[in-house]
Amino acid sequence: SPDLDLPSEGKPQDVNNFSILLQLSIGEKGKPGGEVFSLTVCSPSMLEIESGMFIQNTLVIDTFSWVIIKKRIEKLLPHVQGSNSWKEVILKLAGLLHYSDEELWRL
User: Fold this and answer.
1) Mean of the pLDDT values across residues 29-50?
2) What is the three-state SS of the chain?
3) Which pairs from 44-47 meet CB under 8 Å and 24+ separation?
4) What are the strands of the beta sheet with 19-26, ordered from one edge?
5) Contact, 22 vs 71, CB < 8 A?
6) In this structure, are strands 35-42 and 58-60 parallel, antiparallel, or unpaired?
7) Cα gap 84→25, rounded to integer Å
8) 63 touches 16 (CB < 8 A)
9) What is the pTM of this model?
10) How high does pLDDT run on average in the chain?
11) What percent of the chain shows pLDDT beyond 70?
């Protein structure tokens, strides 16, 4: 996360009251590189504070934990099983996570 001092292992100052941007690189198994997706990870208390915000592409967890975040993201992967192409995988993930690559619509 670019919002943390240590992007892949840091924690917010308050692990029970937080909102951070998380960027993920997801790629084809056995191939180098990947596509970048993003989402907001926040505590329920942040939803109470930020009245009127949309929550698409958001993971809400009670306490910040990289273990919990990783497990929740891994639960997304079955949603793309059975895809016929990498483009189809990207399109399915883009329905769950933020994906801003304009190339997507030209694939």
Assistant:
1) 85
2) CCCCCCCCCCCCCCCCCCEEEEEEEECCCCCCCCEEEEEEEECHHHHHHCCCCCCCCEEECCCCCHHHHHHHHHCCHHHHCCCCCHHHHHHHHHCCCECCCHHHHHC
3) 45/16, 45/17, 46/17, 46/18, 46/19
4) 19-26, 35-42, 58-60
5) no
6) parallel
7) 20
8) yes
9) 0.79
10) 83
11) 82
- Give Cβ neighbours of residue 45 (< 8 Å, ≥ 6 apart): 16, 17
Distance CA(84)–CA(49), nearest Å, equals 42
Residue 76, token pair as written in the block: 């997304």
> Which pair of structure tokens corresponds to residue 96?
């769950």
Q: Which of 9, 12, 28 is nearest to 83 (CA)?
A: 28
